[in-house]
Amino acid sequence: MANTGKEYEELVRDIQRSLINAENIPSLKNINIEKNKKIKDRSGIDREFDIYWEFEIGGHTYRSVIECKDYSSPVSIEKIDAFIGKTNDIPGLKLIYATRTGYQSGAKIKAEQHNIQLLVIRDQQAQDWVDDDGTPLLKSIHFKMTAILPPRIINFNVHVDKEWFYSQNEYTENTLPYLFKTELSDAIFIRNISKGEKYSIHDLSRLLMKK
Predict the structure, then answer these.
(1) Is the pTM of the predicted complex or chain greater than 0.70?
(2) 140 located within any domain
(3) Which of 19, 83, 125, 127 has its CA 20 to 30 A from that of 90?
(4) Domain check: are 171 and 80 in the same one?
């Protein structure tokens, strides 16, 4: 089957959309990405671009066009010249060129002179995971981790002595459940009679963390 380049255009578009979503810039508005977008030049002639990307930030609208070429060899300077000629009569565009196979040296120089961003978008290859001196690079790291959280008090139940309760005139069975709900953890105290110690619920939480 002949390579029409359509699959590569969709790949570049999807990657561009994913990168935009990953940036998560709150001030970025009205993001619009289109395929095969036609824009009229100064002469009124429709010029078609593989991918058109428009967004608004700070009240200004920015427009980019991406030329996607799924060539089997590096892009030549003639291809960059053609892209420049295609966009020369359309002001206000950021120019981006995408290919799988890289660019010839002349194409890189020409693109730099005209502020064209050059992208190489392709599947990963074996040589991508080798350093310049031939040292293999890590592809992934697998590890297991057990997180031990510090102890904390998640519930506090009060058991009241029945005889003591009925000896108190200010409490009733209806008001008792609400006595401790409105108190802060540093306003409720526990007294250890056998050791002669006294600490708040807040203090108890800190003591548990030290053990």
Answers:
(1) no
(2) no
(3) 19
(4) no
